[in-house]
Design a protein that fits this description.
Helix content is 49%, strand content 15%. By secondary structure, it is an alpha/beta fold. Helix 2 crosses helix 3, helix 3 packs antiparallel against helix 4 and helix 6 packs across helix 7.
């Protein structure tokens, strides 16, 4: 299957992408991984991306599209893939359609993870991260530490990232609504969109997604 995963910040796209890709036996292709791989390997696209990033500028669509095209052409993606974070806007969606058409294939589904805006704010603004080890993550409501402000694992100080504040989250949501959300209507016109609730336990959301994808294919 060839799937695009969309949803607002805090919808759990990265987590669901990993689970779904494993269940469907297809590679997860995320924008973040593409950038890291190309930059660390020193590819031409990676060098271009770094030059824009170092200058504090957005990486142009053509660079991101080039990275995605290269990754989707690799052998492990021959029978399908799950795109996480790409396409990010209608222009990228149109480029993806053109790429796939050139290869004589097309998308099977666009999975839209739906989460109320207030829940997104609650999820992200409630995160607290250990200063000693960034992999130790807690949540003031869903996974609180035993002692407030202290990591259960190593005793390090827990802090809130600057981009996890409520104001920043709402700004990120505005960007999502203006730039990325329009691709849902773009794909809905192609009858590709499958929308599910991303509320609840991770496993429940994964099962919901798998059932929705099977029903859509059926």
């Amino acid at each position: 299957m060839r799937i695009v995963l969309v949803g607002p910040p805090g919808a759990g796209k990265g987590t669901q992408a990993a689970y779904l890709a494993k269940n469907l036996s297809i590679p997860q292709i995320s924008t973040g991984d593409l950038f890291r791989a190309n930059i660390s390997q020193g590819t031409d696209l990676g060098k271009q991306a770094r030059s824009f990033m170092d200058a504090g500028k957005l990486v142009p669509d053509e660079v991101t599209i080039g990275m995605a095209k290269d990754r989707m052409s690799q052998p492990d993606a021959e029978n399908g893939f799950l795109l996480d974070g790409f396409p990010r806007n209608v222009g990228q969606a149109e480029a993806l359609d053109a790429m796939l058409k050139d290869e004589g294939t097309k998308l099977d589904a666009v999975l839209d993870l739906e989460v109320p805006e207030d829940e997104v704010v609650k999820r992200i603004a409630g995160r607290r991260i250990c200063r000693n080890d960034g992999s130790h993550v807690f949540h003031v409501t869903y996974n609180p530490p035993q002692a407030e402000g202290v990591c259960d694992v190593c005793g390090g100080e827990l802090y809130q990232r600057d981009d996890d504040t409520e104001d920043t989250v709402r700004t990120r949501l505005e960007v999502y609504h203006s730039q990325t959300e329009p691709i849902i209507d773009y794909y809905r016109a192609q009858n590709l969109v499958v929308t599910i609730s991303a509320l609840g336990k991770v496993n429940d959301v994964t099962e919901r997604a798998m059932e929705a994808l099977k029903s859509d294919k059926g």
